Amino acid sequence: MVFHKDPLGIIVFLSVHLLLLYGDIVVVYYVIEYGGEHEGSGRTVMALFVHLFYIMAAFSHLRAAFSNPGYVPQSRIKIDFSSDIEQGKKKRKKELPSFDEWTVCTKCETYRPPRSHHCRICGRCVRRMDHHCPWINNCVGELNFKYFYLFLVYTDLLCCYAFILVLWDWVSNWHKEVEQGKLDRILTLIVFFEIMIFGVFLGGMIFAQTLAVLCNRNAIEIRRYGRPMSFPSVSKISLITGVCGRGSKICWIVPCVTAHIPEPIPPSDKFTDINQFI
Asked: Where does the sequence pass through the membrane (predicted)?
């Protein structure tokens, strides 16, 4: 399990869960339960969908926050990588993308797989690192990207569904007198603005992350090298499998199933030298 003692990250992490819980309670108990025309089994079904999206979003968030994002193992003894570091610096100055070469980190001197990057907050290199996300108080990398993406999707689904329910409740009771206290109206109005803001923001995040997966480039690579002019020749299913893992495709939408992503194997010339020290 991974846990970072970053005060800001912990505050944001807890705030996410409080906002999710607040939205779930207000929508179920103030919009659906006392919302006027929702009767009988219809209320139960609507409440179940709200609870489902909330549970899936919260659980995805927990898995993304406490899962190993793909930390590259650090060697237990000091190894001289000076020549590799100099070569890496020259390539970086020339802005030459190296998506299939093992490199040496210039900060922690870790011999790392292709497309790994160093996180200054974690102090570690992460395989296919996308960014360090304060929402989950963790890096988004190869091994927890699936959970982060599911968190975005299920939270946005919750926002969209709650938006429809709140709007429907307001429209259906527009010309009717419904017994609703001042506090109820304030709580409903707050949750409406919450789902509006986060729904739009998360929609943009989902679009950007989906495009990054289909382009086979993460956020760091896009900032450094830009988006490719066309989609890669690799099939879309292969690209999705690369982040969601192998196995049944139904597992892609379930945050409790770990993505089965194979461990990278270093080149034979380096492998024989450093494998015993990692």
From this structure: 7-32, 44-66, 147-168, 188-214
- Of 147, 161, 152, nearest to 202 by C-alpha is 152
Q: Which parts of the chain fold into alpha helices (H)?
A: 7-26, 40-66, 82-93, 145-172, 182-215, 219-225, 236-244, 268-274
Contact predicate 261/245, CB 8 Å? yes
Closest CA to 233 of 218, 214, 247: 214
Domain ranges of the chain: 7-70+136-173+184-253
Under a CB-based contact definition with an 8 Å cutoff, are residues 206 and 156 in contact?
yes
- The single residue listed with the structure tokens 């607040």 is 22
Using only C-alpha atoms, the chain has a radius of gyration, in whole angstroms, of 23
Token readout for 254 is 């379930």
d(CA 118, CA 103): 11
Q: Which residue in 162, 144, 115 sits closest to 21, CA to CA?
A: 162
pLDDT of residue 127 exceeding 80: yes
Residues 4-13 pLDDT 10s = 888 999 999 9
Give the separation between CA 250 and CA 5, rounded to whole angstroms.
34
How far out from the chain centre does Cα 189 lie?
28
Give 59's contacts (C-beta < 8 A, 6+ positions apart). 255, 256
CA nearest to 136, candidates 260, 252, 6, 255:
6
pTM for the complete prediction? 0.85
